[in-house]
Structures are given as structure tokens and as C-alpha cells.
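Bumping with the actual sequence this time:
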Amino acid sequence: MKPQTVYFSSIFLSLILLTAVSATYGIFFNVGVCLLGVMVSMHLFFLIGVLTKNHTFVDTAWGLSFVIVAHVSFWIQDHHTPVRWIVLAMVTLWGLRLFWHIVKRTFGREEDLRYQDMRKKMGAKKSAILSSYIQIYLIQGFLALFIATPIIMINSMPSNPLQPWYPVGIIVWIFGLTLEMAADSQLKNFLAQKQNQGQLMTRGLWKVSRHPNYFGESTLWWGVYLVALTVEGGWASFFGPLLLTFLLLKVSGVPPAEKLMRNLPGFDEYKRQTSVFIPWFRKA
């Protein structure tokens, strides 16, 4: 099966699962309001992308989408439990950190190679703007909503914070965020040195994983899911972190990053010795 087929199949399956969860637990209104908030943001970024002819700015909208879902699903509720307050703080911290991290990385620079390639492929089509709107903005908005389903469940359903999954989930989230922040910081400091331009980052966390930042991001969302296990029906939001992990491994995370890395000196040996995702001992 082609990767693109698997990608769109996962999106379609997630839509079915979210619809089923919404119908089963009566949260259609909550999901709809969250979708509206995400799409307002995505449309604003779409206008920015069209006017500047640079779609890289949509990456900054990614983290904000989860912050929007967290706040919308939180503030439409009359009752705010300690668990909901903590998850709101967790998601807000992660989303704003990611937003600022990407802003600093992309502001004033040329469009990301992913979107340059997409623009070239669509350049000859009369519907290039419509295609970019659907593929880059509309789909990303829905993906964010699917992945954020555990947040919606936490803010919509009655909870039992005394369950052991609550503290375990928070610990896993803290571990994932710390890993992601440390990996991003190490890579930033490495690239800031002129002598490292065009070289592979193989130090620190990058010595035990080729993509420790993505592993950290996946881990923290599984942490949010573990917290969701403390609410009624929270288990049914499993497809959220599962979809994110799939995207990082097969679509938007590892594949484009490896494409940029494979032409750097020493990549073949680095690839052979180093785990692609989960930090692990290097092979001899």
C-alpha cells in the first residue's frame, strides 16, 4: 500500500472514530466548537501564507491549534476541576513553547523545503491555491483536532482523579516535554556554531536517537492520554496519540528530516548505529 494511501486512510479512520466517540458520549457540541476555533486560526494563517507566498507559517499554527482546543473545551464548561486546570496548563505550556520555537526558527527565512516541493508540484495547476488550502491548512486543522481528542474528553467528561493513571500520565508528560526541549536545545546550540554547518548532530540525546525531539513529543501526548483514562470514556481517545506517533514516524516528522540528513557526511554509519526514534544503545 502506498504511503499516501495509508496517510489518508488514517485520517478517514480518525474521523470515523471521533464521530463515534462524539455520538457515544454526547460531545458533538464540544468537538464542533473546538473545530471552529482551530479552523478560524488555520484560515488566518492561510491568508498569511498566500500573501507572503510562504506556507512555513502554518507550522507555527500547529502548536496554537492544541492551545485553542484546550482553552475552548475548558472554558465552555461550567465546572473546572483540578485535573482540567492542570491539563490546560500542560497543553498551553507545550503549545506556546512549540509556537515560539518554530517562530524563532522560521522567521525571516525562506519557505521550508517541504512546502517548496509541494508548491512546485502544484505550480502548473490552476487550482494551486485551493490545493494548498486543502492539503496544508484544512487537513492540518482536522489532524490537530483528532490528536487533541484526549483533551476534549478530559474537559467534557466526569473524572476520577484518584485513579493511578492521573499521576502516571503527568509524569510521562513531564518526561516527554523535558526530552523534547532538551533535544531542541542541543540541536539549536550545535547548529549555532559555524564549524558544524553541513554536519550531523550526533551528541547528547542525538547519540541515542536520530529524532529524540519527535520521540519526546509523542511521549508527552501519550502522557495526556493516560490522564484521559481517568475520565469516563477517555480510553476511546487512543487514536489521538496513535495518529500523532504515526505522523511523526511515517509522514511529517522522520521522513522529511531523514531526507535532509541523508546527504550529510557520515549519515549511513549514523543510521546504522543509532535508533531512529526510541532512545537506545548504539550498535557497534
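The C-alpha cells above came from a reply further down the thread. The chain has a mean pLDDT of 91.
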